[in-house]
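Figure 2 data, in text form.
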Amino acid sequence: MAVASPAVRRRGPLLLMLVAALLSIWPVLAADAKPKPTVKQLKKELTALQKESDKLIADYYKGRVELQKVEKTEKAARERLNAAQEVFERESYQLRMMGVQRYVSGEPNLANMFSGGGGDPGALLNRLALSQHMIDLQNARLRGFTQVRDEQKVAQEEAAEREKELRTSLKDMEKRKSKAEKLIDKMRDKIEQLYPVPGARPDGTFLPQLPSGEDNITPRMRLVKQLVKERFDVPFGIGCFRTIQDGGEHPLGRACDFMLSHGGSMPSAAEIARGYKIADWVVKNAKRLGIMYVIYRQRIWHVRNGSWRTMTDRGGTTANHYDHPHISVY
């Protein structure tokens, strides 16, 4: 009987450990290798999402109607407050003027009344009547001011309450809108999965492709360009094929630049955010669409390592990809 050498005997336990490790992770590997959904499954999921979407859109519409009503009452309350404030300020001014006038002229007294009329009782009575008339007018203005002040306070409180209702309605509206938008994005994802990726193999690898068509790009790059354009509405154009001498994917028809500004200028904050959304979406769908790498804002993401890294400074806004995401496919 042959006897195993010491080296083989030493490797035996190691081999057993390796087999045990592979068996332990096999369920994980099997889970990762689950089959892609079929067209039939995707259409079924899409139908279910469509029903849910219709409910959310109906709810969103209801919220819009409610918001419009609240906006109308808030506007009316604000107009009433403005009118009450105007009256309040006018009456306040008149009241201040009355106080100044009384202070300057001084309060009437009997001595002045007798001395001013030469002892004539008729003249005295006339002056007394005029003084009482002025007092009555002042009292009436004070009573009117009290009413104006109270009305202004009520208008302030009502306007504040309507403004609070409006803020609550706007917040609720944003929640409904966000919920509907998320579901619409899900539907968009399902629809995009119905597009067959040209040259894709069942094992997840991709066959090389030749450029075609008037735009001189590959069918795979054309699909990615179409999906990005439909989803993100790139405002400043998409540049793909060009004949350059320093290599890269553009001359091969396997790259596109999605411009966020014109003439090498720095994009606005909104366009920079759009660029991040494009880059994130492409990275998320990289393995499905055959993406090789993405460059944006002097950083590159490659499908091989699945992470972003900083690039060397190439000396300009466009050269460093600050004004556009660059997408290359296999």
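Caption note: The chain has a mean pLDDT of 79.
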